[in-house]
Design goal:
- By secondary structure, the chain is an alpha/beta fold.
- It has a single domain, classed as Aldolase class I (TIM Barrel).
- Helix content is 35%, strand content 18%.
- The longest helix is centred in the N-terminal third of the chain and has 14 residues.
Length: 222
């Protein structure tokens, strides 16, 4: 059985109390060793989530939703990779919303990957298509076509698999994940394809019951 990844991105959502409630309500009935669950949460929630996940003994690791392209120092408002060391295992870099709303370009994103790797943080790199550069040091790629993000429109699994296979072959066989309106109903169609090694979800991760159903669906895959 291939290794699978489930990446949850809460985006700009949840207070501390809501995050705690989510952890307390999440019930994971089964998680094989081949399934890795990564929760990418806002910086404000990472410390409390780490504590609550440990208390609840949940098989979840944390990821940051971005990381500064600068080292620690006089960069007011930035959160450096060094500050995240020991708090997260992953960083989501290059998400389409970061590119669109915060004008992050390939040069900036490459610097972010370099900073994360310097402090042992694994990189989940977001791309929207085959023409985007994937920096050296990327650990896995999250392919999210703009038409599928938050739209409820799910990509054609055969087409996605072909595109992921092509992009992976051009980038040292990096594992590719698919993101964009995936649910517990559609997830099996994606992870059953040979070149798709998991999924990234946004809205489907905000409700702990729906997220648990997604985990169950992926755990049942053989």
């Amino acid at each position: 059985m291939k290794t699978l990844y489930l990446v949850a991105n809460w985006k700009s959502n949840k207070t501390v109390l809501e995050a705690k409630d989510w952890i307390h309500q999440l019930k994971i009935s089964k998680k094989p060793d081949t399934l890795h669950i990564i929760l990418c949460a806002p910086f404000t929630l990472l410390t409390v989530l780490k504590e609550e996940i440990q208390k609840a003994n949940l098989p979840i690791v944390l990821g940051a939703q971005t990381v500064s392209s600068f080292s620690s120092g006089a960069y007011t408002g930035e959160v450096s990779a060094q500050m995240l060391q020991g708090l997260v295992e992953y960083a989501l870099i290059g998400h389409s919303e970061r590119r669109r709303y915060f004008h992050e370009n390939d040069e900036t994103l490459s610097k972010k990957v370099m900073e994360a790797k310097k402090y042992g943080i694994k990189c989940i790199y977001g791309v929207e298509g085959i023409d985007q550069v994937i920096p050296v040091g990327t650990d896995m790629v999250l392919y999210e076509p703009p038409s599928a993000i938050g739209s409820g429109v799910v990509g054609n699994t055969e087409e996605v698999n072909t595109l992921c296979q092509k992009m992976s072959s051009l980038n040292n066989e990096i594992p590719f994940l698919y993101g964009g309106s995936v649910t517990e109903v559609t997830v099996k169609d994606f992870i059953s394809k040979p070149s798709i090694f998991g999924v990234g979800v946004g809205g489907a991760s905000l409700n702990p019951m729906q997220f648990a159903q997604l985990i169950d669906a992926m755990a049942a895959y053989e």
